[in-house]
Amino acid sequence: MQQVNIHEAKTNLSKLIEKAVRGESFVIAKSGKPMVLVSAYTPPPDPAKRLGFLKGRLEVPADFDSMGALEIQALFEGHETAS
Q: What is the CATH number of the domain that holds 17?
């Protein structure tokens, strides 16, 4: 990985940014001591685009809210249920 000093980074910032965009990360150093890692930014996926992505592919049973109610109650009361 390439390491550049601050002065060189300021002088060649545009070129260094282009390298980072192409996947070539680099380190900016001060007095030979690495200070900052520069790499391309990858934006997170837009959550609005994920909302509803399974619409029409799944069906929720009518008794969804009460599914397993007897088993859950038995667990709280310490009883075993027949499966």
A: 3.40.1620.10
